[in-house]
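Appendix C reproduces, verbatim, an entry submitted by the partner laboratory led by Prof. M.T., so that reviewers can inspect both the input and the predicted structure.
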Amino acid sequence: MKVYSILSKFPFLRNKYALKFTLIALPGIIIPWVVLALFIVNKGYATHTMTNVGIGALLLSAGSAFAVIRLFPKLTTPIVEVRDAIVKYNAKERQLSNLPLQFEDEIGLVMHDLQDFLEHIDTQLTEKSDMIDLLSHDLRSPVARIQGLSNLIKLDENPENVEYAEYISNECKNMTTLLENILLMFKEDTHAFEAQNINLKNLVVDSVNFFNIAAGDKQLTMQVDISEELFINVQHGLFTQALRNILGNAIKFSKEGKSIFITAKRQGQEVSITIRDEGVGMKHDDLVKIFDRFTKAGKKGTKGEASFGLGLYLSKKIIEKQGGKIVAESGGVNKGAKFVITLYQLITKKRKETVKK
């Protein structure tokens, strides 16, 4: 930054970055013309004099060219510092640089604006992290109280009440785990998640059973056609929530007596999971919008169930963070909908047989 700083002290160069380059390049532009002028003016001189002038001019030209070559990179130092500041500040390291803010030319203004921008982003990320910690604390507390109350209900002599209390207790545990996973998802990057090798059919069946009451209210049939030998590598808690969001969506928009089909197939190192319903379907324009946060494409379910416009958005984020993608398809209004999840670079293997001794 030394050459750039020295040149910035001159009033006529202070506000113009291009003029600094011009001043450095000027000797290299002028000297060849000076040499040419000397040859023309001194044509009548002795040959040895002209030779000396030529050698001197050649050395002078070479020296000026060398100086320009050395100085040009030094003048680009502020551009390098701007790039380094951007590289150093990333979502994982968050190393905030202190760019010099005293310069008034175009690059100086860029450094000033970039420093302001990075400091603003850093403040926003810190506030977001603090808010996530606050939510984590405030949401855990009521769940813990519900779980405590369910444990008291388990002391009841009525077996049915005990069964429901056990169900509530398990769901509280699931909710706590889910909460931690979702908060982690928004706090860390993709590599924060350690995938597990999970039997896909078991995962889907557990999610289907989770909706027994909701599906029963609408007399829906949920059909699962997945090989027991198919395994996937995903973060269990987050992927389960993504799957439940999509299944809940299918139930919400299905009419009484209809069916929901969950299938899966493997092609090479890819696994495709399809959830298809016979519900209200969607217009073509809504197929992309439904994955937006707080989407306006959201609507009430067939029994007036509320829609907050977050479920499919979160599902998409979770699936993408685990290296996959999700797409929605529909033949139109009242023609059902289909969601296809594709997971990449997965290891699938057969379940090991239990050896009886």
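The two ends are 76 Å apart (CA to CA). Additional entries are available on request from the coordinating office.
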